[in-house]
Amino acid sequence: MSTDDQAIGFTPLASVVSQQQLIAATSIVGYQSQGHCLVIGAAEAALAACSELSSLKTTVVTLDAGLESINKELTEEGVALYQTQSLKLTGYLGKYSATAVAGLDELDLGVGVYLADGLFDLVLDLSSEPQLSSELLPFGYIHAPDDGAL
Question: Which residues pair with 57 in a beta bridge?
Answer without folding.
Answer: 36
